[in-house]
Amino acid sequence: MTSIKRGSIGSSFDDFLEKEGVASETKSIAIKRVLAWQIEEAMKHKQLSKNQMAKAMHTSRSQLDRILDPSNERIQLDTIIKAAHVLGRELRIELV
Q1: What does the pLDDT look like over 16-47, one tens digit per residue?
Q2: 21: which DSSP letter?
Q3: C-beta separation of 80 from 35 below 8 A
Q4: Rounded to a whole number, what is the largest CA-CA distance in the chain?
Q5: In terms of Cα–Cα distance, which of 70, 69, 72, 67 is closest to 91?
């Protein structure tokens, strides 16, 4: 029986995504899913319904549904900033 050493075998997952040409898209989707989840969790914590949240953001319920849709990564930063503000949160973005 062959023993396998613990640790890295081959290239990293990031390298694989780069090689496949989907790294940027994958990261974009992952970031949007996390943001949608965080907004939804903060809404639950504040006990805000979707209608209440949309009204506080001065937007439509359908726009809020797009924000909360984890598969829709095409939303504007100002919309996320509005959502964060209503929830008493802050959006931080940085280049590393």
Answers
A1: 777 877 777 778 888 899 999 999 999 999 99
A2: T
A3: yes
A4: 64
A5: 67
**One-letter amino acid of 57:** M
Cα–Cα distance for residue pair 39/71, rounded to 1 Å: 14
59/49 Cα distance (integer angstroms)? 14
Name the pTM for this structure: 0.76
- CA 28 to centroid of chain Cα atoms: 8
Give all domains of the chain, ordered by start, each with its CATH number: 22-86 (1.10.260.40)
Structure tokens, 62: 């359908």
Which residues, 6 or more positions from 75, have their beta carbon under 8 angstroms from its beta carbon?
32, 66, 67
